[in-house]
Records
---
Amino acid sequence: MSLAPIPLLDRYRDILARDDERFAVTLGEGGTPLIHANRLGEEIGLANLHLKFEGTNPTGSFKDRGMVLAVNRALASGARAVVCASTGNTSASAAAYAAAAGLPCYVILPAGKVARGKLAQALAAGARMIMVDGNFDAALEAVRRIGEDGSAVVVNSINPDRLEGQQTAAFEIVDALGRAPDALALPVGNAGNITAYWRGFRRYAADGHRLPRMLGFQAEGAAPIVRGEPVAEPETVATAIRIGNPASWDGAVAARDQSGGLIEAVSDDEILETQRRIVQLEGIFCEPASAAGVAGVRRLAREGRIDSREVVVCVLTGHGLKDPDAIQGEEGTLTPIAAELGAIRAAMGL
Ligand code: AN7
């Protein structure tokens, strides 16, 4: 008997694969934990709060679910290279899967606005890094053009294989709970993930499952869908979702409206405070953007807009280790003292 887990694309191949399609590349993506958050739920006032922790994917974010399909198909189609614009996680994922596929990878990034861990991942995997004086939206516009001449396959979520693969997170949640949740909350940046989840839940609904309300949350300084118009200069501490003109805008609005859900904004303070409460109460360290969904749910619960018994799943989209600079303010506790028992006991205050 083999103890190797079934690769994600094979587990859901009835839905995802074309006839006789073989997937050569896998890094063990998917199969992420759905954790019943008892302590956090108690603080927020929800008895059935669950966290889908996408930080356990091979490169530490949900991007791997779609990247594995996009890169496998790029490889099979004879691509010479892959290219993406990114706020960080897409580039880390593209770099890793391209490396495993033996394909060159080009990443176009907003200079000074990508978290350190994500930069390190793409650099380590040998991606060709192109930093631009501009934001993600400008970088994506350039990548669209590059894709048109066929010199490289675009692996941003404008590549439909990305969202196809990302649906698997919705499948896993329904498989784990035995039903769809009442509400699904997640951060919204380029709006691909909310679009993919909604598609995934609807696919499974064909098997008789109910559908969740989709609750999307943008950062206040980067909330084009909430405002109803693009934001020229998006700004937020949650650099992953620092996006002013989302590519999947229509998909996000459809998910919101068809599900009876909402897309609202949360402040940077709410994001950082919630990131801290998640790890202090549940031990799960996510990156700032990932906390936006929980921050939004926390506010909805406080305002009585979610019933305390509802089954709520919040997606924690990326790992906290990607963005160590987001944890500030505790540096004082890192000042060294003498390596002596007395001094250490005193410092412990026990
Ligand atoms: C941790 O990596 O857009 O709404 O270029 O990294 O599907 O864009 C990342 C987005 C949420 C938003 N959480 O998802 C990129 C990029 C994390 C993210 C989002 C991102 P979408």
---
Amino acid sequence: MLRQYELVDLVKSYDPNADEDALNRAYVFAMKKHGAQLRTSGDPYYSHPVEVAGILTKFKLDSTSIVAGLLHDTVEDTDTSVEEIRSLFGDQVAQIVDGLTKLAMIEQKSANNKQAENFRKLLLAMSEDIRVLLIKLADRLHNMRTLHYCAPEKRARIAKETLDIYAPLAERIGMQEVKTELEEIAFKELHKEAYESIQARLNFLREQGSNLVPKIISRLQKDMEENGVKAAVSGREKSPYSIWRKMQQKNASFEQLSDIMAFRIIVDDVASCYQALGIVHSKYHMVPRRFKDYISTPKPNGYKSIHTGVIGPENTRIEIQIRTQEMHEVAEKGVAAHWAYKQGEKVVGKNFRWIRELLEILDQASNPEEFLENTKLEMYNDQVFCFTPKGDLIGLPINSTPVDFAYAVHSSVGDTCVGAKINGEIRPLRTILQNGDQVEILTSKAQHPSTEWDRFVVTGKAKAAIRRYVRAHKRDQFITLGQQLLERTFKGENLDFNEKALVNVLPNFEAESIDDIYAKVGEGLVTAWDVMKAIYPAYKQSKLGKVVKSFKVPGFGKSPRKDRSKAEPLKIKGLIPGMAVHFAGCCHPLPGDRIVGIVTTGKGVAIHTIDCKLLEKFADEPERWLDISWGDAADEGPHVGRLKVMLANEPGALGDLSNLIARNNGNINNLNIVNRTVSYFELLVDVEVKDLKHLTDIIAALKASKVVSYVSRSNQ
Ligand code: MN
């Protein structure tokens, strides 16, 4: 284990201005806090953070990172608080340690390795400070190096997680060295036999081939020198894991894999890269489809190099990578190399793609500390990742809500969602989800998508599903209504109604099906009379005037398209079939009221209560009066009754009023303040009720309330 002064010396060797005092204090703090805790290896626990700090010095990170590395497990594993760290080591260290602690908690939440890709993104999105990610990787690297001390059943899980999540993450930020080491250890753990047989085969080839690698290196080196290119050639056998992966990909046996050796030519500048490539290709046969130019087109993680495959010296198939020293550093150390480069006042190439933004900060920052401080990972900050109760991870656009989440799980979950528990608590459906939230969707078969949702959902899937449902649902309603209107109109005129007749007039209404016509009539785009006239052009319209669209079927909207064959008659006796009917807005008739029908011009029959003041206007026109009454069948309503209420002008009075009405099964559908004084509100309240008795009950309940000083049914 690194001793205290050794660690400090290491940091000072590349950063003479390092905060020696903070390093010393952090070392001692970690040692004290972890105290007698032991690793499974039997080592004192604090050897782990010390080794992690040691790995971080290999990336040449600033002293803030090293300090945070030393402290990275204190909050999670000891009684230390983030506040304590803040007061002793400052904001930055505290923030990084806090970030690492949160990552550790998220790690425990994720039960499912199938979602490695989303989990990697979550880690990236949560590692706002790039140092969080670098320390996390160093932490994992040390845990992998000491994996053999763990219990066997734990090992496989950790190794798999490393292969699924951390090795690709290291690759994503360009840290090739870390990636390779993580993969090798995990591979050895997970596929011991494959690892050993590949290793054995490599040993055999090495003995057989009388050590080809050095021979080929010196041949290539000479080729470069003879052509005047300054180059450093190195070579190695490929790692067992990369050989194994190639075997999997190509479904090949080890014997069939010919290029198990890889060589690297490192030159001074980009021009020399292409020169070196020219030399290789002119001297050796190229293997088709193995050439890749990542200098002109770098990989998304910023990797640059030229790759080619040739039948090389000794007549062996080999892979050659050609790159500059800078490209090499970036390939091996990734994002950390940028920092190291800046320290040497060398600014690396600006084509590093996703890191370009980071580099801009790097260029503007006056010192490396500032660079790392301002380096926020901008990756995936347009996304948010949330867990299902089973630990599956769902990735969504930023500002997504539980409804978006529900639709992302399955459209049937979205369609029936009624509520959501976020991290165990019931929250509104419009709540904006945060990274790492655990979301449980509550569903009910009775629920349908709501147009309300359309105002806050952000995913296309949710929006499309909601609109599709609403459209289909409305159309169903229009079809039902249109058919009823047509049947009534025809019967009223004693004409035969059949769907065959409708087929003949489809083109008249630009309709493609009979349902189209029903829908148009139901929606009021076409009147029932228009349809009748199309079928019987010679028929003379009845004297009662045009049938218009404002026709209300009781219960309409509740059960679309039940059984269209037996359209229910309106539950009012004495009406002329086919006439449009509506309840007058002046007196709001309810079942139980004595009613009268008035034939209006152009609006069908208006139903009034017998005592409505408006009826005086029609006193001289008896031909307009229809003698009607409520039918015997129970009418489901709802009907709207209007109340006039005087309410105390005090806090909570309106709430009390609406609660009282709701508790009596009434539903307020409109509320108007007509007058307001210091002590009273005068309100008109429209309430949906079953019938007159229901309204009377509500009035009685309101009269008993202390906030209501006066209430009556309103007939104006
Ligand atoms: Mn750790």
